[in-house]
Amino acid sequence: MSDPANSRSEAAEERISALLVAAARAAHRSGTGFTLAELVEPERYRLSEIERVAIRRMFVGLVGGIEDEMRARLLTEPELPDKPEFAASLGAAHVAIAWPILARAGFLEDDELANILERRGKSYHIIRQLRRTGVTDENGRLDVLTQHGDRDIAAHAMKLLIAESRINERFDDPRLGRSDLPETVDHRLVWTVAAALRDYGAHVHRMDGVALDRVVTNVARRMLEDRGDEPPVDAVAMRLAEKLYDAGLIDDPLLVEALNGARPIFYAAMLAVRAGISFEIAWDMATMPDVPSHMVLLKSIGVERDVASQSLMAMLHAVLAENGKADEVAAEWVELYDTLRPEDTEAAMRPWRLDPVYRSVVAQLAAADSGALR
Q1: Which of 58, 109, 331, 367 is the right S-S partner for 176, CB 3.0 to 4.6 Å?
Q2: 147 within a domain of the structure (yes/no)
Q3: Reduced to 3 states, what is the DSSP secondary structure of residue 322?
Q4: Rounded distance between C-alpha atoms, residue 332 and residue 218, angstroms
Q5: Which phi and psi (to 5°) does residue 170 adopt?
Q6: Which domain holds residue 83?
């Protein structure tokens, strides 16, 4: 006859093992897996409706912003071919040119841009849900960072507030601008829009392609040269988090306050700095629609159980937008939090510390090998 105590202990060990395996395996599922076409086509998505609408709105706005600037610059170019109909089209700001052309031809695939759009769509969805469920502390520590005695911290806190307002100026109005893109992505997108405008002039208005090439490429080059040095919001959040970490100010209550204040980007940045991982990895681990990865990350940086439980619940409610299901999923794992051993937690973290491209290819090769064995 088996000992009930031993049976319970064995069951707990099995569940801990399952949690650690789930957290490690999730590393190979992170990343979008979406193409740009899937992100913008309504009939082909595996996203929530809120995320899909936000992504499309951000993408249209991003392309439109680049196009508007390029069209305005073209109209002031002395070398613009003398074609009144083309100039009139460029001046009709309410009529999009580049987006319809690129949508019809099929956007050139850009995995980096797809990742940015998916991450921003997800953050928008999470921010909306956290605003509904979070309880912001008035005069909390985050609110007064802009008046911190350390001028460096105060300056970086102000930069983060500005960057956060830039990506979501008004509620339900997600934004994405050129300054939110890495230079490589911005470079590809500016040239893509330039090619679309060139195509429009050559095919719709029967203009000379060589003359168009000269004036359009000159404008595109100047736009890239004039790009500001405003960093993306996640980079701003990481810089502030690094300053706070160096000052010994990133403690458990500050993590909870960030989630309660609907600031998941800053929350992920603080996790990243405390864990010594990239923002992208911390974001993926914290926002997966299950608990093990987020839980392992919190355990790896020594977050107390009560704070971990609050953080897991808050994020899962925001990601799933189904409180009943979120509570059920989180409760299944949280009770194991105190029993996780440091060596087991680190083993589960190891795959996450690998380069994302490396992890992705390892997963693809494993899938290919599995298919070949069948």
Answers
A1: 58
A2: no
A3: coil
A4: 59
A5: -130, 155
A6: 38-130+181-225
- Per run of 10 residues, the mean pLDDT along the chain (length 374 residues) is 50 74 72 66 63 87 95 94 94 93 83 88 89 67 86 93 77 80 92 95 93 95 88 93 96 93 95 95 90 92 93 89 71 82 89 80 69 50
The pair of structure tokens assigned to 182 is: 């890495």
- Total number of domains constituting the chain: 1
Residue tagged 């009139």 (tokens): 88
53 in a domain, yes or no? yes
Structure tokens at 169: 């100026």
Q: Rounded to an integer, what distance in angstroms lies between the CA atom of residue 14 and that of residue 129? A: 33
Asked whether residue 267 is assigned to any structural domain, the reply reads no
Length of the chain: 374
Asked if residue 119 is part of any domain, the answer here is yes
| Half-sphere exposure at residue 50, Cβ-oriented, CA atoms within 13 angstroms | 17
> What is the rounded radius of gyration, in angstroms, for the C-alpha atoms of the chain?
24
* Locus of tokens 């830039």: 166
Cβ pair 61, 184 in contact under 8 A: no
Q: HSE of 98 in the Cβ direction (CA atoms, 13 Å)?
A: 26
> How far apart are the C-alpha atoms of 366 and 371, rounded to whole Å?
9
